[in-house]
Amino acid sequence: MTKELSDDVNDYLYKVLVVGDLATGKTSMIKRYVHGIFSRQYKATIGVDFALKVMNVNEKTIVRLQLWDIAGQERYGNMTRVYYKEAAGAFVVFDVTRPETFEGVKKWKQDIDSKVFLPNKKPIPVVLLANKVDLKPDGWGQTTQQMDEFCKEHRFCGWFPTSAKENLNIGTAAKFLVNQILNENISQAPQEEDVVDLTKNTNEIKKKGCC
User: Fold this and answer.
1) Which SUPFAM superfamilies does the entry link to (predicted)?
2) Cα gap 143→149, rounded to integer Å
């Protein structure tokens, strides 16, 4: 996670994980969000793939999301700790047409919480995505209240029903996660008294115990 300041514009780069069981539609969602396209012909991701999305949050804030598309089978391997390193946030995706992928959500969340942390040691923000809702227009067995309670119990920041085919809520979910990340970034910013003024002379700095 980096921050640069140029011409009064804050430019942030955040690594965001996209995880979930095999064939939950992670790659399709990323392709839709980053490139605006949808296809049923995507092959299963092997290991990890990457994509970059630039988001203009406002006139003074640009966020570059480095999306890590992590293969569903990786939860059973030993590489997730490497993949998760320095992540600022995550999406966990399940397929509403396959209830077993919803059960897998808990294990993905536990895996993330045990392996990656913010600088203040808090868990990174994680958003749950109920994908392929276009295939279940009459619902998939979970009410809004049940999903809200599930997210509260398992410490998700929130959840969204999504569809890569219909381009439903993917951008909205991304904006929500980015706001969560930015809020964490602000809360961890050094207080004014903690900032060393490098314009002061060396003697003054030494008196304050700085090396």
Assistant:
1) P-loop containing nucleoside triphosphate hydrolases
2) 10
**Any bridge partners for residue 49, and if so which?**
69
Which structure tokens are listed for 12?
A: 């942030």
Per-residue pLDDT tens digits for 106-118: 999 999 999 999 9
Burial (0-12, 13-18, 19+ Cβ within 10 Å), 111: middle
Strand 9-20 to 48-58 pairing: unpaired
User: How far is it, in rounded angstroms, from Cα 116 to Cα 83?
Assistant: 10
Contacts of 155 (CB under 8 A, 6+ apart): 109, 113, 123, 126
Q: Report the distance separating Cα 72 and Cα 22, nearest Å.
A: 4
**By the 8 A CB rule, do 72 and 80 touch?**
no
What letters, b where the CB count within 10 A reaches 16 and e where it falls short, cover 10-43?
bbbbbbbbbbbbbbbbbbbbbbbbbeeeeeeeee
Residue 168 DSSP label: B
Total-model pTM: 0.83
Residue 132 and residue 140: Cα distance in Å, rounded?
A: 10
Which of 53, 87, 59 is CA-nearest to residue 175?
Answer: 53
Token representation of residue 23 = 């064939």
The percentage of the chain sitting over the pLDDT mark of 70, rounded to a whole number, equals 82
